[in-house]
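Cross-posted from the bioinformatics board.
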Amino acid sequence: MSLAVNCRNLKKRYGDVVAVDGLSFSVSRGECFGLLGPNGAGKTTTIEILEGLLTPDDGEVDVLGLRWKTHEHELRQRLGIQLQETQFTDKLTVEETLRLFRSFYDRGPTVSDLLARVELEAKRRSWVVKLSGGQKQRLSIACALAGAPDLLFLDEPTTGLDPQSRRQLWSIMGRFRENGGTVLLTTHYMDEAQTLCDRVAIVNRGRVIAMDTPQALIASFGTPTRVVHEGTLEDVFMSLTGRQLRED
Amino acid sequence: MKTEATGRLASTEPRASSGTYHPLVELTLARLREFLREPEAIFWTFFFPIVMSVMMAIAFPAGAARPVRVAVERSSAAIEPSSATGARDTLKASLTAERHIVVRDIPPGDELRALRNGEVDLIVVASHPPTYRFDPTRDESRLARLVVDEALKRATGRPDPWQANDETIAIPGSRYVDWLLPGIIALGVMNNGLWSIAFVTVQARLKKLLKRLAASPMRKRDFLMAPIVARLVFLAPEVGIPLAFGALVLGTPIRGGLASLGIVAVLGALAFGSLGLLIASRVRTFEAINGLMNLATVPMWVLSGVFFSATNFPGWAQPVIQALPLTALVDAMRGVVLEGATLVDLRGELATLATWAVVPFAIALRIFRWR
């Protein structure tokens, strides 16, 4: 089995709102795959279905060749998950938070090893409430890495971070991939997708409207009629999803 | 697939060597650390019972019988005001001389208000013969009437047909304060149990921490049990402090075994921990949890016999009242402390508490909202 994620024809609606409308894609082992799209496109709903936190109304999901219905515990042991907006307990230290998450997994690196991987050794004894945004996000990644996952889900991991913190997260993800890990991430940042992802899917109104390597997407789109500079992935994204602002 | 995974996870180790404990232990430790780093929480858990006990000691001083308190009013029937004042002063003097009577100086015209407020138990009007003004539904007023009447008759020279032999003996544990103390302790177990668990649960839900935990392989049962286990750590001081205060300062006897008391307290804490979880199982706001908590606790404050006996309520209400967890805990605590009841004597109460410990937990586990 060479696919880390395989989802076919996913559908999810909330009342009258169709969040995900027949979405299909697959991610190979060792790949870094990006889900791109404006707010409300259905990225988070999709990733939460793949994480087994939401049940789709229709469609099929295989993760690491397993189904959520039958192998939930094994999947939870083998996935690393970072969610948007998780706030860890204010008055626990970084180390205590990691110890807690590490205890949930049958296997994985030691707490010291995790601290080293996300460069938080100096903050080992700091309360979570005292951390900067970037440090909190690295703690969140460390918790996701606590079970030595085969597949890492990252939902907007760098939103709201300064460029330095973003680059630091990129290098943490890079090291995870060097060791053979698979990454599925969502992002608003086109440069991030272009730098990190082997392939991306652009999602709009719950559907995949384009899917390929960043280079291929740029090449297919970068006709230099209106664009004088070399085309970027951002140009592709804006043309496909439109320039108007979306309310979340 | 397996070998591939193991190969690239060469640096990983099984849990035994990772230096962490069982998830339930780690979750409990996290909860304890969080609690100990929250000064207000410590205040409410440890100092509130002390404050409560001190107030009780002041309100019910040990060993003293309460005197009856009266107001003396000038008679308006007398023709001359000066003679009315004289009659009042004579009466006042003869009452003041009595050991069990306290005459309060109430400004003229204010006596009825003082009676209504409970400042005095009885108004004595200095008419001839004297008039007693009181509400007969108040026990202390009826008692005051008897004491005052006897004193006045004796002062006017009534011969006593006999002098009865009073044998006064002190029966430890028969005062109201002794009866109240176990109830107050039970109330503390209820409040701390419900609030501490419900509050952190709702907070973790608001912070999306519950959702993150649900995304990990953590067993849901471990997470729900951890705050209840953590509660047990604080139970000893929470119950022990007011109990020791009662025994040493108020002179309340502790007749039952400490082991029985411990088991009753633990079952009580489990019951309220489990109820707290159920109450917080789906709530998403602090306003809603406040409302639900009051809905659950206020009826028990009144019905469960903490401040006055639950037997005051009619028979048809008793099955419901006896099934309440606070009623069971209050009765069991009183049984152990005041009557030296054994666990066998208390099997009914213990069964009720055990049911409350198991059933709400099982429901909470099913309906708990993780997002």
